[in-house]
Each structure stands twice: as structure tokens, then as C-alpha cells.
Amino acid sequence: MTEITIRPLAQSDHADWRRLWTAYLTFYETKLPDEVYDITWKRLFTEGEFEPKGFIATLDGKAVGLTHYLYHRSCWSLVNNCYLQDLFADPNVRGKGVGAALIKAVQDEAGKIGVKNVYWMTHETNATARRLYDHVARRTGFIEYDLL
């Protein structure tokens, strides 16, 4: 079996990152203006405790997955929490461990700075992702609300 490689995003990943993030947004029937792509890419490489970060997954030398995550303060803890904001694996490699490897990479990176709480959301209809999430994490039972 081919090994999945997970590594931090690099400036040279821009084209692959854009392709994968566009596919993720398309899955959720969302489009964002180029300005959001541009500022997000810039933020991924901006130093700062609360700036977003990212990993890319490769398989056979091809970029096949990505994740974005960020840290934020909590009133319930002395240390930050980690929000895994976006997670995507190319449909052609689903079931091969890419998603689980990306989640583990975020968990390991957060653990390096003492952050134990890594959490995320998914849409209730995303059955494929939920099978993975039910296997690697606990479901909290919380329901999200927003004021968009």
C-alpha cells in the first residue's frame, strides 16, 4: 500500500491547495470570491497564535487532501482549543485513510502546544465523513446555530 504523507502547507502548494479547497467548497455548494481565496492563502502563512494553519496530504506524490485549523481561546480552559475548520479528501482516495491522517496530524500538532480539544463540524447529510468521524472521535450532541 502506498504511504500517505501529511505535511504543513508550503507556498509551492498554492495550485493544489486551490484545487482541493475549491472541490471542498463545491461539495458544500459554496462559492467564494477570489479575494477570500487570496486572503485565506495569505493568512495560512501569517505568523500569529490565532492565524489559520493547514496541512496537505499526498499519495503517490499527488496532493489528495487538505485541512485548515486554527486555535482560539476558551472560557472553559487555560489552554486554547483547536477548531478543525475544513477537511477534504479527493473522492478518488476516500476510504484510504487520508481524512483520518489529516485529523491525526492536527491532533498531534495541537498536542505539541498542550491543546487537547480538537473539534469540528460537518453537515448532517455528509454520511461518508460521518462514518470516519464516528470512528475517530466522539459525537458531542451539540447542535450549531448561526446568525448569518
UniProtKB/TrEMBL annotation:
The keyword Coiled coil does not apply. It comes from the Bacteria. The keyword Cytoplasm does not apply. Keywords: Acyltransferase, Transferase. InterPro entries: Acyl_CoA_acyltransferase, Diverse_Substrate_AcTransf, GNAT_dom. Residues 4-148 form the N-acetyltransferase domain. PANTHER family: ACETYLTRANSFERASE, DIAMINE N-ACETYLTRANSFERASE. This is GNAT family N-acetyltransferase. It comes from Mesorhizobium abyssinicae.
